[in-house]
Amino acid sequence: MEPVAQTAFPWVVWLVAVLIAFQMVLMIVAYTVLAERKVLGWIQGRIGPNRVGPWGMLQPFADLLKFIFKEDLVPDKSTKFVYYLAPIVALTCALMPMVVYPFGPTLSDPMGTLGPWINWALGWIPLVGTYVVDAVSWLTPRAVNMPLTISRIDVGVLFVLGITSVGVYGIALAGWSSNSKYSLMGGLRSSAQMISYELAMGAAVLGPVMLAGTLDLGGIIRAQQQSTFRWFIIPQFIAFVVFLISAFAETNRVPFDLPEAETELVAGFHTEYSALKFALFFMAEYVNMFTVSVMCTVLFLGGWYVPGLEAVGRLLGLSAYLHEGTIVYALISHVAFIVKICLFLFFYIWVRGTLPRFRFDQLMNFGWKFLLPVALLNVIVTIVVVYFLNIYGS
Amino acid sequence: MAANAVFFLFAGLAIACAVSMVYHKNPLYSAISLVGVFIALSCIYVTLGAPFIAAVQVLIYAGAIMVLVVFVIMLLNLDDDRPLNRLRYLYAVGAGLGLILLVQTLFIFYAVARSPKQAVQIDESVGRTLSIGSAMYSRYLLPVEIVGVLLLMAIIGAVILVRRLSQPELERVIDEELTRRHEEDEIGDYRISI
Predict the structure, then answer these.
(1) CB A304 within 8 A of CB A334
(2) What is the Cα–Cα distance from A301 to A243, expressed in whole angstroms?
(3) Predicted local confidence at residue B96, as pLDDT
(4) Share of chain A residues as helix, strand and coil, in percent rounded to the nearest 5
(5) Domain-located, residue A118
(6) Most buried of the four, A4, A44, A219, B83, by CB within 10 Å?
(7) Interface check B76 vs A, CB under 8 A
(8) What is the pLDDT of residues A59-84, one digit of tens each?
């Protein structure tokens, strides 16, 4: 390959990887919106959207087009710069944690398996073919032990928590800059709620992190693979429940959706937002749901790890294709990961169709006087257990 | 080359945000600029191989402390065109301090240029979670404990400050304040009337 192409190639690979991950997350988010409307419809004895495409499958795109073509109203008395900044901050902070998601297990030698097939499929094309063969031969030694994450950060858990905590600014600033009573009340409620429940969430995260002994998301999954119970939901059930509840509060979902309680605050912090800027907030909310579902899956349900998959492979005599590192194993694990996330997303929607809303003082009392002490107690118990396990165990 | 470019990008961002923080008269803009400084600094920490410090910087400063500051500013809603005549005499002090800082910086450049170059032993584990944790709870145990006691004192102090009035007294004061505010701004900027 020519030098320029060789320098640019890693960046191209990287870009393609980022684009695929980005596209996948956004598609899941778009269809979460549709699923929410459908499931809510069924719960309430309605049908839900069913006009755009078969079973309403194209509804998300119709919604997007509608958002783009709607008139963009900006309140006259708003603080313009902050008003424009807020939705951007909200969506950026919601999307950024994607960088550290462990989408699947490490591939030991993907191009060794796929390379010949790619060469066979594309190598014969005139002009382009030689480049494809070159690219495959360049990529093969470099793709050995390829992790299916965009970036492996030593402190993945902290990274996700930090970025999502910066997301509070989007909501707080939106509420303030709109210069409207409802928006401000929504923004204040939302910030207070997110700051309060962040503590319980952080304390709940500590449990699995201590058991795993690492802050790296991939490392936590690996630790669960090697632990006695396979999934941390069993030894850390209290932390799991606390995390799930505070995740509802962090994403402003029912029963903690006071920031946008439509019966009292119109639409809360995004009352004054319209068209595409409203769509950004809307998307940010669903991307945040996706984020906490990913965290829940990784911390408590073993991420992509399916217990017994390798044993099944041995049983069927397929262990050459079905052990960790092969493409089939990675595919199955990846699908399992997505299914686990979708289960959590479904749980969100289910709860929304079932539970009424908290009062604000109930919300604060529950967060500070129940959830946080329980989470701290769990941390203390885990510390003691881990300490004695390290001394007497193994 | 790329590392340098990244450094200059984030260093420039940090300096620009810092200047904007001092320059803006609206306190909310200053607060947002300060958040920008923190985030740019944490990016520099990442390039220096200290991801833990970077994550904690974002989590604590940008995600917790500055949210509270923004909260307070939003609730108080200070006028943005209030002249700052009261602090005019401080300009001279500020100029003096700035000069000292400049001299210090120049001295550092001078000292670095003068000192003999030598190969530095780079310890990869520095800045990692494990090394920070083990250092904090073994070598620097006493400072950590002292900071812990200090923070506990601050928490107790805050509780005592809030609890200075008994509950009925507190409710009376809040009631009075609310009626006063209600009379003051029947019409006007909604942001004042929380």
Answers:
(1) yes
(2) 13
(3) 92
(4) 70, 0, 25
(5) no
(6) A219
(7) no
(8) 888 888 888 888 888 787 777 788 88
Residue A146 bridge partners (DSSP): A107
Residue type, A181: K
Please give the average per-residue pLDDT across A135-150, as a whole number: 78
Residue A45, domain member (yes or no): no
Between CA A322 and CA A212 the distance in angstroms is 26
Domain total of chain A: 1
A235 lies in some domain: yes
How many residues belong to chain B? 194
A214, A220 Cβ separation under 8 angstroms? yes
Provide the pLDDT for residue B190: 47
Q: What residue of A is the nearest CA neighbor of B73?
A: A176
- What residues of B are in contact with residue A172 (Cβ under 8 Å)? 67, 70-71, 74
Spell out the alpha helix ranges (H) of A70-155. Answer: 80-95, 110-122, 129-142
Rounded to whole angstroms, how far apart are CA atoms A302 and A240?
Answer: 12
Q: Are A291 and A94 in contact (CB under 8 A)?
A: yes
For residue A237 the two structure tokens come to 């059930």
Cβ-based contacts of B20 with chain A (< 8 Å): none
- Angle, CA B62 vertex, CA B56 and CA B67 arms, to 5°: 130
Cβ burial, residue B63 (10 Å; 0-12/13-18/19+): buried
Q: How large is the average pLDDT for residues A262-276?
A: 76
Please choose, from the candidates A157, A158, A195, A198, the residue with its C-alpha nearest in 3D space to the C-alpha of residue B58.
A158
B194 touches chain A (CB under 8 A): yes
The pLDDT value given to residue B145:
94
Selected for mutation to probe chain A from B17, B28, B59 (highest A CB count within 10 Å) is B59
Mean pLDDT in runs of 10 for chain B (194 residues)? Answer: 82 92 83 89 86 87 84 70 66 89 92 78 71 86 94 90 74 79 57 44
pLDDT at A298 over 80: yes
Query: Which residue type sits at A82?
Result: V
In a domain, A182, yes or no: yes
In terms of C-beta distances under 8 Å and separation of at least 24 residues, what long-range contacts does B53-59 make, across chains too? Answer: B53/B127, B53/B132, B54/A155, B55/A155, B55/A158, B55/A159, B55/A161, B55/A162, B56/A158, B56/A162, B58/A162, B58/A163, B58/A165, B58/A166, B59/A158, B59/A161, B59/A162, B59/A165
In chain B, % helix, strand, coil (3-state, to 5) comes to 75, 0, 25
Q: How far apart are CA A278 and CA A288, in angstroms?
A: 15
Asked if pLDDT for residue A367 goes beyond 90, the answer is no
Flag whether residue A160 sits within 8 Å of chain B, measured between CB atoms: no
Fold category of B1-118 in CATH: Four Helix Bundle (Hemerythrin (Met), subunit A) (1.20.120)
Domain that holds residue A189: 70-108+155-392
Q: Which of B47, B53, B71, B193 to mutate to test the interface with A (most CBs of A within 10 A)?
A: B71
Please report, as a single letter, which amino acid is at residue A139: L
Question: Nearest C-alpha of chain B: how many angstroms from A190?
Answer: 11
pLDDT tens-digit series, residues A228-246: 878 888 888 889 999 999 9
Q: Verify cis geometry, omega within 30 degrees of 0, for the bond prior to A3.
A: no
Structure tokens at A58: 């194209």
